[in-house]
Structures are given as C-alpha cells and as structure tokens.
Description:
- The protein is of the alpha+beta class.
- The protein has helices spanning about 5-20, 40-50, 50-55, 65-70, 125-140, 155-165, 190-195; strands spanning about 30-35, 80-85, 95-105, 110-115, 145-150, 165-180, 180-190.
Amino acid sequence: MIQGDGAGASARTAAELEVFLAGGHAGSSRVTLRPLTRRDQGEFLDLVRASADLHHPWMSLPATPEEFRSYIDRFDHVTGQGLLICVRENGTIAGTVNINSIIRGRLQSASLGYAAFAPSAGRGYMSEGLALVLRYAFQRLRLHRLEAQIQPDNHASIKMVRRLGFRYEGYSPELLFIDGAWCDHERWAITANMAGDGLWDPHPTLPHR
C-alpha cells in the first residue's frame, strides 16, 4: 500500500480542485468538490453508520477511526485521490468519490469508487457530483479512461453510470473482496473522448508515440 503524507497530499488535491473549479467547470451544479481530510473523520464515520442500509452489500467503507486513518492514507494525490461531494448551499457532505489506481504512461487510466450518504440520498446530488468528478479527472488530471466496477444487482449504480455515458465493457467473476466475500462485478468505463472533453494537451507522461 502506498502511504500518503496526510495534509500534504490533501493540500495538493485541494490546489488541483481549486484551479479546476475556478475555471467555472461546476456551472450551475448544486454541488461542489473538496478533498477528504483527516479532519473529516468524525463526520465521515457518522455518515457511514447512518448509511449502513444504503451501502450494504455493495461496498464496505471504514467504520472505525483506525480504519479511517488506513483508508485516507491510500490517497497520496498521485496514485489516488479521495474527494467529497458537498452541497453548495450549506456544505453538507452528500457523498464520496475515490479516484483509485491512477496509472500514467500509455494507460492514463484510473478506477472510480463512490458512495452516497443516506441523509442526502435520492436528491440527485450524487449524479451531479460524479459528473463533476469526470470533468475534473479528464480536464484537470488529464486522464484518458475511468472505470467503475459495479455488482450486477446494484441497479441504481448501473443506471447512474449509464446516464453519465459509461459503456458496459464486461463481467468479472470474484473481482473485489467486499463484506467478507469475493464478489462478481460488471465493468463500466468512459473515456475523455466519449465525454467530449478531449481537446487539451495530453498529460506529460503520455509517450509521443
């Protein structure tokens, strides 16, 4: 596991988000983005507990302070970023999105993990927030491809990514270990070209040929 440097990694992510949001990319969205930080531990854990029925059996989020610290250490900014979707009007945390396993070079790809929180669920905040994350990942981080792995019975999540333009790419048995078992997942992906956001200089790590 790659360990982040805590406040330093969060600060770098915050700086990237600030530049992105200053460009007006959020438009009329009701939500905004900010990095997950150690200061969010108490509120994050409270939201996870309040959302247990919503998340089970689709995902397993940290439930203790120790698990939260281990979880946030994964986000070193370079290979992974932890983001919060917040309601613009009052700053309420509506959901969380992780940009995981960022790989540069010829791949320029990452995977997405995301979860809504029960107190704000069902109001469209998660869909708006994930759309904003896609623009951030393609326009600011200059990634080429994002993939979401979704359990086949998680119809709400599949419906959301389809609405955002993801395409179905395949089925992987026993792909991820969740809630004590290896779970089958569908793979859904979107590229910058599919999102219509590919008109910018490529990331400097992309080879010329």
